[in-house]
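To close the chapter, one final illustration. This time we ask the reader to focus less on the individual chains and more on the assembly as a whole: which components sit near each other, and how the overall shape emerges from the parts.
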Amino acid sequence: MTVQPFHRSQADMVPERAAPVTTVGVIGWLRTNLFSSWINAAFTLIALYLLWLIVPALIDWAFVNADIAGDNRFACKSSGACWAWVDQRIDQFLYGFYTAEQTWRVDVAVLLLIPALAPLLFEGVPFARQLRWFSLAYPVVASFLLVGGIGLEGVPTDQFGGFMLNLTVGLAGIVLSLPIGILLALGRRSRLPIIRMLCIGFIEIVRGVPLITLLFVSNIILPIFLPPDVTVDSLIRVIVMVTAFASAYMAEVIRGGLQAIPRGQYEAAQALGLRYWQSMGLIVLPQALKISIPGIVNTFIGLFKDTTLVIIIGLFDILGIGNAMVAHPDWQGLSTEAYVFIALFFFVACFSMSRYSIHLEKRLDTERRY
Amino acid sequence: MADATPDATPDAAPAAAGDPTQEYRRIITIEGLNKWFGSFHVLRDIDLIVERQEKIVICGPSGSGKSTLIRCINRLEDHQEGRIVIDGTELTHDLKNIDTIRREVGMVFQQFNLFPHLTVLENLCIAPIWVRKTPRDEAEALAHRYLERVKIPEQVDKYPGQLSGGQQQRVAIARSLCMQPNIMLFDEPTSALDPEMIKEVLDVMVDLAESGMTMLVVTHEMGFASQVADRVIFMDQGQIVEQNTPSEFFNNPQSDRTKLFLSQILDK
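The assembled structure is written out below.
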């Protein structure tokens, strides 16, 4: 074979051209995403047909043919949903049995969540530095508002209920399970055998048991071992158990993230003279937690939905309130409406967490090249 | 420098112990160092004395223990037998001594090991701020000075992932220098680089050598060795097989292993 000598001068270089119209813009998007092959096109058409079957029927049921007023289920005459109960029961769904004149305190606590969370979740929040102090104080402020004391009328925690109970247990669990999970994950990788054994023992035992069992243990078995005059508030027991359960999962999620950090990162931190906690806090954990975001948020979402299990120990969260309503003669049989309504609350909360985690992943992505 | 100070060879080391000026000039003393990875004897009877401002190049086939040797100097690896004394501080299990030594000894890695979640400036400032407790503005001034010195002042706000390999390695050198160490260890600093980037890193190292830094460099860049090194050490099977001035080492190798090794890398 002979070599054909070839070279290109600078003037001869191929100039840059725009991509073909069929690969960019709306047409490009449709082609690559919906009609890239015959099979893909067929699935697109089937999906459109199914949507056409479901969506209009759903809208009819939920809105067009729905009844929204009345004192009981007999007032609902049309073929669609019966939302008449919402007006009467909404307070119970939101606040449970919280003293009616005091529910403003729950509202204030929820509103204060905005300034408490904003500086932690987002960048560029005005007064972020000062607000972070408020974030730190928020758990105390919120407990004071909800439980009462010093000047505020006391509300016993067994009156907590409805979605407010889900939020209380869920947020407390989320806030506590992340740091505990981090410590457990670090402990499980510790070189000190006692610490390692304790962490492995905790993680494996708690993770190996259903949450319901833990709640039963806290409710029935624990009091047997405690002196009769010692009682632990049932809300605290729930928070402790939910936190313990989520922490065990969290620890394993974070351990996965820790394992993904190359050894060179630890070594570089050591070689620069950073101590163990400095290299963990400044170098390793920020990277490990970033990798673990999907798993962490997954655990948070699981934890939040698990708050409905408080019914096991006799507390009425939003699902418990819904069940009670469906069993009431006035509203018997409206389980579809009740559960759709409750599902919406959970969906909004969980979907927000999911979207936020995607936002956070993008914000922390420093690996990108441009 | 090694020609001028023949005491720096291991054989002569004990004789120099009583002389206070000799004592002062020594910055690293390694005596009878042995290390095992499990049952594998990776370092065997290493004796090495390094003087202030000396530049030593360590070479040898892979698995010969050269990286392990310099990693023992800042305690990224611990040793089982022998003594390592760095500038008057002996490396023991005492964490205080380890901290002292790590502050004085900088290290540059083959894989750069920059912190990918921090900008270049933050990479440079983190150790001065947290370890030396330098105020932030001073640390940043220091960082800018060293970035200038490694010739990439314009990259200060970028993330490591946005830099080329050569730029990353130069940032890594600057990061070590920001701790103002007395000794710099280089563990194959150019082995992970594309050929066209090796020179920019070596240039920075030559510049550093000329400024009088004590340097231990594990490398196969023989051009760098002959230009900069006072001494070349050849290691094989965990021991020092040969050491000499660069010109003698390359032109007149003594041991058969050295000859074989040189023929292999120089033919490449």
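Residues 6 and 12 of chain A are 12 Å apart (CA to CA). The longest helix of chain A spans residues 276-306. With these observations in hand, you are ready for the problems at the end of the chapter.
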